[in-house]
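Running this now, will post back.
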Amino acid sequence: MAETYDLILDSSRLGIAMGLYSNAENYEIYDHEARGESVNRLLDTLLLQASTSLENIHRVMVTLGPGSFTGLRNGIAYAQGLCFSGKRELYGVSTLQALSAQAKNPAESLVIIKARPEHWYLRKQGEESFLSTTELLKKLSEAPQSTTILGDLHAQTQTEIQNKISQQQQHFELIEDKNISKFRVFFDTLVPSLVQEANYIQASYAQI
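Update: finished.
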């Protein structure tokens, strides 16, 4: 019997990250310059590396945002197309929820990614919000010292945010754009559905 695979697609951030996973093998690819028209090429590359075919992909997971408006639209549409025939199950996961899996203790972590100048997306205790820098600093002040902050490069280089994290004696971890293997845990907790919609929170995301 041929090995069966899970496919994960994240097009919500800079470029496209994609992974193909079985019980025995993992194949991943990340192209920081890729756009929607590159998705099929990246999947073909992974299938070639795994010496397998599309027929052996049984589950597909795609990030729903918040994130790049065009990236989300293209990624979700592509994933829905792969699953339209009913041969595969489609799972949608919030980008912020998916990124929380990179923390050693997701339940005690916050996830921050940039939305637009002086505005951020935050996931805290399962709730997601769109905040100004001032509002975000207040949320960080309310978090316990033991909290791990997962942030993108913008959060790492934002002086006010880093100063607040230091004052609170919290721990900051930089999110890796290409590290999507840990997203697999959500196959066990999410319900598959062909109906997946982008979670914009605010349709204002900017990769700058």
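Helices lie at 39-50, 69-83, 95-100, 133-142, 153-157, 159-167. More later if anyone needs it.
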